[in-house]
Amino acid sequence: MSTTDTTLLTYEIINITPLNIILGVVCIFTTTIIYDKLYYKFCYYTHPSVLNNAYMKTGLEKWADDDFVPISELKKRMVWFNNKLVTYEDAGYLFDRFGLPINPYKRTGKYGRGMMGKYGANHAADPIVTRFHNGRYQMITVIRSDSGLPAIPGGMVDAGESYTMTLGREITEEAAEENSLLINKLKNGRIVYSGYADDPRCTNTAWIETVAVHVHLNEYESDMLVLRPAKDGETLKSFWYDITIHNMKVNPLYGSHGDLVMKAMDSFDNNWRKY
Ligand code: BGC
Question: 107-125: per-residue pLDDT in tens?
Answer without folding.
Answer: 998 889 999 999 999 999 9
